[in-house]
Amino acid sequence: MKTAILGAGVSGLALARFLIEAGFPRELISLFEAGPRVGGLCASKTVDGFTYDVTGGHILYSKDGPAMQWMKDCAGGDAAFVKRDRHTKIRFEDRWVHYPFENGLGDLPPQANFDCLKGYIEAWHRRQVSGSSAPTRFGDWVRWRFGDGIAKHFMDPYNAKVWKREPNFMSSDWVAGRVPDAPVDDVLRSSVGIRTEGYTHQSIFYYPLEGGFQAITDGIGAALLDRVRTSTPVTELQRSSGGWRVNGEAFDCVVSTLALTDLPQLVREMPAAPAQAMRSLEFNSITCILVALDRAEHPNLSWIYLPHASQGPTNRVTYMSNYSPRMAPAGKSSLLCEVTHDSKAPTPGPELEREVLAGLEHAGLLRRDEVLFTDRVTTRFAYVVFDELYHARRREAFDYLERVGLTTLGRFGRFEYDNSDQCVIKARELARQLLERARRG
Ligand SMILES: Cc1cc2nc3c(=O)[nH]c(=O)nc-3n(C[C@H](O)[C@H](O)[C@H](O)COP(=O)(O)OP(=O)(O)OC[C@H]3O[C@@H](n4cnc5c(N)ncnc54)[C@H](O)[C@@H]3O)c2cc1C
Question: If pLDDT is split at 50, 70 and 90, which confidence band does 273 have?
Answer without folding.
Answer: very high
